[in-house]
Amino acid sequence: MAVGLLASACADSPGDAATTSTAGIATTTTTRAALVTTSTTIVEVDSDCATAYSGVGVLTLDESDPSACIRVGTHFRIRFENGFEEPVEITWNGEPVSIEEVFEPAGTAGEQLGVGVHRIQSPRLPITIEVVDPATSRYTTEAMFLRSWGDLGPGVSLTDLEASGVPVVIPDEAGEGKFCTYGFIEGDPYSPGIMILSGTEVARLDATAPQHHTASDVRFGVTTQRVLGVYGDQIELEAEGERAYLAFIPRDGPDRSFALIFETGPDGTVIGFRTGLAGPVRWPDGCLD
Questions:
Q1: What pLDDT, on a 0 to 100 scale, did the predictor assign at position 35?
Q2: Given 3.40.50, 2.60.40, 1.10.1760, 2.60.120, which CATH number is that of 4-132?
Q3: Nearest to residue 91, comparing CAs of 136, 63, 124?
Q4: The pLDDT of residue 1 is above 80
Q5: Which of 42, 65, 134, 159 could join 140 in a cystine, given CB atoms 3.0 to 4.6 angstroms apart?
């Protein structure tokens, strides 16, 4: 994998930040005292660098690719999977690590590495982790509404999205020919989960990142009382074991075909939320229902 246009932006001491400008692009690199791994801002990353969408960035180390690269959000965990017959040696958190099968460091990419492109030291093959700034995604800066989220919306066809230049990808493992599957905005680890029915229509949009929020600033971790305070008596509450589902369903007009669902856990805080068509948005397990 070719990686080019290195910006010379290494801090003088751990914990310091350095800013440079390459081809008119200002970049900031931070090296952290907890890590010995090289943290170098790279203006351009090879297009073959895969984007993770599920909250875990998996780096597969094997002979099928001479390098390993993954693009993740700050909230993602990192997972190394070794496909070689012998262990792969890397340096992580200042210590040598011998990966025999699987290695999953503690903490998130944001906590361990910070925003930027990072080269992980390994004599076996180049390993690159790009931690994307959440501010670069419109789905972290723009709010989820009942009928839209950025350029997405329940009921919109994939054909219309493609015509508008919105690139939706369906991971290979999702398979083809399924009635219900999930897609994501290509290259954006902060993409909502896009439920697609019959391979043609967007049915609902699931929040996936801690930066996601509704127009009323409801987000992960807020309380049931906060949700009820925002939507009042338009909330329908349904309990299921230790979880509860708070559904905001408009009472009048065409908006009744849509709903916002907030799922809360045992402590009464929001652990998931989504907007979509009134039927599919109520499926608690997504495409598994």
A1: 37
A2: 2.60.40
A3: 124
A4: no
A5: 134
